[in-house]
Amino acid sequence: MEAIREIIDELKFKHKTFISMNTDLCELKHMKLFFVLMSLLIIGDYVMPQYFGIHIKYDLTTTRFMNLLILAYFMVNGKVLTSFIRMICYMKVTYVLIPFVIVIIYTTVLRTSINTFFLSGLEILTLYMLIYGIRYVVGVRRTIKWSVGIAYFFAIYGMVEYIAGQSLFLKFLATVPTDVKNCYRSGHYRIMGPCGHPLGYGLLLLIFIAIACIDYEKDEIFLFKRPLLIVLLFANIVLTGSRSTLGIVFIEFFAIILFSNSINKKKSLYGIICAIFVFIVFELVFYNTSIGRYVMMQLTSVIDHVFETSYSANFGADLNTLENSENYRKFLPRIFTLEWLNPFVGRGVRSSFGVEFDGVYIHSIDNYYVGLYIKYAYPGMIAYILFFLFAIYSMLKKAFKFKSGICASAAIGSISYYFSLYWVDTLQTLKYEYLLMAIFFAYALEKDKQYVLKNNMG
Questions:
Q1: How many CB atoms within 10 Å of residue 171?
Q2: pTM of the full structure
Q3: Is 3 strand, coil or helix?
Q4: CA angle 100, 104, 108 (to 5 degrees)
Q5: Any transmembrane segments, and where (predicted)?
C-alpha cells in the first residue's frame, strides 16, 4: 500500500495538469482512478488469458472489460476524451490505418458481420488506449519495468508448467467456453503460458525477448542485459515445441547483437560462448534423459527444416507428423487462386472456411496473411500490411535518429512477430504486439519536440 501511495503522490505532485496540442491547460481529474484503469489494462493484456472472462452471448474478456471501463471514464471526463482524440489525430500512423478501417466498415456492411467491426475495431481502439495510457498516465519507464517483471513471471511459470505437464492457466482460469486444450508432440507436453496454443506462446516469447534486452537508463539494447531472463525465455521457447519460433529466435538474437554498440557486441559474443559451453555441459549430463533428448529433438528439427535432413528422428521426433504439418502449410498460398473467393470483399471475421486441394482438406489457416485475405480480401490484406510496415519503418527510423535501444528493440520484436505469422495465425496474440507498438509510439511522442505535453508520468 505504501508503494501505491508513493505512486499516487508522485502523480499528484508532478502531473496535475497537461497541455494539449493547442497548449490549452487541462486538468486531469480523478488521476488515481485513471492510473488504476490504465494499469489494469496493461497488466491484464499481458497476464489474463482469452478464455478468462464472462460469457454473455459473447466473451467479455479482461481486455474488453477494461476497454468498456476506460470508455466510460472518457464519457464522464470530456477533457480527457478531447485530449485522447487529439492524440489520435496527431499521430501519422492514424492516417495509415484509415484504409484498413474503411475495409473493416464496408466488409461489416456487405457481409452483415457485426463481429468484423467490433473485434477488429476493438483491437485498434485498444492500441490507441495503450499508447495514451503509457505516454500520459503510466509512463514508458514504468511500463517497461512491469513488462520485464511479467516476463520473469512467465519465464519461471513456463518451467513450472512443463513439470506439471498441463496448463495451470487453463485448469484454473477457463471461465468461458473454449476449444483450448493441452498440446503434446512426440510424447512431450508443449507449454503455452497464458495463450491458447504453444505457437501463440512462442509469439509472446519473441516479444518478451526483445523487451528483456532493453536498458532503459542508457536507452541501449544488449542481449545479456538480463542473462537469467534470456536463458529462461529461450528455455520456454524450446519447451513450446515450436520449430518456427525456435528458428526465428536465433535470427532475433543476431539482430539484437547487430543493433548493439561495440562494447555490448563484444559482451554478447562472450555471453554466447558461455551459453554454448553451458549447453554442452547440460547435454553431456542429461543426454540420455527425457529432457536432454527433447531439447536435442527441438534443435535438430530446426536443422531438418532448413536443410531437409532427418536428424531429429534420432531423438524421438515423429517425422510423419512434422512432414504432414509442413506439407499442409504448402497448400495455403493456393487459397489466393480460388475463384469463388471475392478478391475485393472478404468473408469477415469468424466466417467458417474450408477447401480441398489434391485430397488435402484445409480448415485451419496457419498463415496470418492468407487469413487476412479470407477475412478482408486484397484491400484489407494490403492495408494491414502497409500499417505494420509503416510502424516498423517508424521504429527503425527513430532507432537510427535517436540511437535508441528502445526503438530498436520494438523494431526487432515486431519484425520477429510479423515474420512468424507466415507460419502461424495470430492465435489471439495481437494484443501483445500492440503493447510493444504502444511502448514505441508512447516513447516516440515523448521524443517528438513538436508535441510537447507536460503530463509524462514515467
A1: 10
A2: 0.91
A3: helix
A4: 170
A5: 33-52, 64-81, 93-111, 117-138, 150-169, 199-216, 269-287, 376-393, 405-423
Query: What is the rounded end-to-end Cα distance, in angstroms, of the chain?
Result: 19
Contact 245, 191 (CB under 8 A): no
Cα dihedral across residues 53, 56, 59, 60: positive or negative:
negative
The full set of domain ranges for the chain reads 2-261+389-447
Quickly list DSSP for 259-297: HS-HHHHHHHHHHHHHHHHHHHHHHHHHTTSHHHHHHHH
- In sequence order, the β-bridge partners of residue 18 are 26
- pLDDT one digit per residue (tens) for the chain, 458 residues: 455 455 545 554 444 434 444 433 344 446 788 999 999 999 999 999 999 999 887 788 999 999 999 999 999 888 899 999 999 999 999 999 999 999 999 999 999 888 888 889 999 999 999 999 999 999 999 999 999 999 999 999 999 999 999 999 999 999 998 999 999 988 889 999 999 999 999 999 999 999 999 999 999 999 999 999 999 999 999 999 999 999 999 999 999 999 999 999 999 999 999 999 999 999 999 988 989 999 999 999 999 888 888 888 888 888 787 777 777 888 899 999 999 999 999 999 876 788 888 777 888 889 999 999 999 999 999 999 999 999 999 999 999 999 999 999 999 999 999 999 999 999 999 999 999 999 999 999 988 754 444 444 34
The long-range contacts involving 212-218, CB below 8 angstroms and separated by at least 24 positions, are: 212/148, 212/151, 213/256, 213/405, 213/409, 214/144, 214/148, 214/405, 214/406, 214/409, 215/405, 216/140, 216/141, 216/144, 216/145, 216/406, 218/405
Q: What are phi and psi of 395, to 5 degrees?
A: -60, -45
Alpha helix (H) residue ranges in 332-423: 368-401, 405-420
Q: Which three cell numbers stand for residue 354?
A: 474450408
